[in-house]
Specification:
By secondary structure, the chain is α/β, with parallel strands linked by helices. It is built from twelve helices and twelve strands. Bound molecules: 3-phosphoglyceric acid.
């Protein structure tokens, strides 16, 4: 089988080497397309691929149409909103993700952003310490659980809300379950977003929620830009000069926000939550192993469609 790694944002060389080794040891052919800039290049590369490993690369109807031999796509990462699941299912293609493999990398970025915001982007002006402050986690999946553990190490008080996670799991992690999203936003100095982009969550964080943040609060988004309403964010930041928004997922109106609120917003130039050599290796190797296992005996434990 031919396994194509197609990553607009490349894995580290060590991760690529290890992915290649796993694929070839499994008896398959390895091929790679990195840093491509045109969709055409991806469409050409998938023409004879049986399996595909991607990151945030868009795998839509056009990709499935251009890949008649494709049997499995593995998103080396957690969020699979970049893959058209209906189109995959329609073509009989299995889609998997590699949950948890990037979690620590993203969690460390969250803490880094919390400190960057607390210290006014290291400008030299008087900031605050995150120790003793309240951290609210919206969503309590793998990234969030890692953030909670790190934040507790910093002496933060951590609470969370997640309709899909039992309160017991939070309590076992030393995290206080919060009764509503509104209460989470109203009752924390730092709120960190950890929800996927789904039909239910896209556009779900608007001015009503953001406006509930207490004085001097910081909202951190390392999840997906689509869950926050850009215009509402602009409106609240305009009305509330005390609030900050730090994100690894640039909003559509990033340039306007940066110009108007230079001291109170921060956006990574390119999504970098999972951009560590460790996360690249973990997620890339997990993806390769999942493909080898699937072709060996049909194992599809991480199937999402
Ligand atoms: C994920 O969903 O795992 C993260 O958003 C990582 O995305 P990336 O692979 O594009 O860095």
């Amino acid at each position: 089988m031919k396994v194509l790694v197609a990553t607009e944002k490349p894995f580290s060389p060590k991760a690529v080497e290890e992915i290649r080794r796993r694929i070839e040891d499994g008896g398959h052919t390895f091929s790679i397309l990195e840093k491509y800039t045109a969709k055409e290049d991806l469409l050409k590369a998938v023409a004879d691929a049986d399996a595909l490993i991607v990151r945030s690369d868009i795998v839509d109807e056009a990709v499935f149409a251009a890949a008649p031999s494709l049997k499995i796509v593995v998103r080396a990462g957690a969020g699979y909103d970049n893959i058209d699941l209906a189109a995959a299912t329609g073509k009989g293609v299995i889609v998997e993700n590699t949950p948890g493999q990037n979690a620590n990398a993203v969690a460390e970025l969250v803490i880094g952003m919390a400190i960057l915001a607390a210290r006014n982007k290291f400008s030299g002006s008087t900031g605050f310490e995150i120790s003793g402050k309240r951290l609210g986690l919206q969503g309590f999946g793998q990234v969030s659980r890692h953030v909670a553990a790190l934040a507790k190490g910093f002496g933060m008080e951590v609470s969370a809300i997640d309709p899909y996670c039992p309160a017991k799991v939070m309590e076992e992690a030393g995290v206080t379950p919060c009764e509503s999203v509104e209460a989470l936003y109203a009752g924390n100095d730092i709120v960190s977003i950890h929800i996927p982009a789904t039909k239910e969550t896209v556009g779900s964080i608007g001015k009503d929620l953001i406006g509930k943040l207490p004085k001097g609060a910081v909202l951190i988004n390392t999840a997906r830009k689509e869950v926050v309403v850009d215009d509402d964010l602009l409106e609240v930041l305009e009305q509330r000069p005390d609030l900050k928004y730090f994100a690894d997922v640039k909003p559509g109106n990033a340039a306007v926000l940066e110009e108007k609120f230079a001291d109170r917003v921060f956006f990574t130039p390119k999504k970098s939550g999972a951009q560590t050599k460790e996360a690249n290796l973990n997620a890339g190797v997990a993806a390769a192993n999942q493909i080898v296992a699937f072709f060996a005996d049909g194992t599809d434990r991480f199937r999402v469609n």
